[in-house]
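sorry for the late reply, my laptop died twice this morning and i had to redo everyting from scratch. anyway the thing you sent over, i finally got around to it. pasting the sequence first so we're on the same page, its 108 residues, then the predicted structure underneath. double check i copied it right bc i was rushing
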Amino acid sequence: MLLGRVVGRLWASRQAGSLDGRKLLLIRPETAGGGEGRRLVVAVDGLDAGPGDRVIVAHGSRVRDLTVGPTVADKDVVIGIVDGHVADERTPAGGAQRPSRPGGRARP
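ok and here's the structure:
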């Protein structure tokens, strides 16, 4: 999953039939430090997100199948519109802490 901001919409006069009637959004992912990433992700939107919204995007055929249907020709799906979040002050600047393995050993 990724956290990002909607920076626009995408449409095409010719597209896979399974995308007919679907809203495609351009998402700019956020970096672990909260800044803007350089790449863009195209995601199917079923939640009516709009420009400027912070969203959660999930990737994969299982997510797609459960949210927008197995025939949709995109595996990136907006699954949430973010109202806010709180970062744990103990989390290193480089990103989230990795969970430890069973038995308390830290992951490499």
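The longest strand covers residues 2-10.
thats about all i looked at so far, will dig more tmrw
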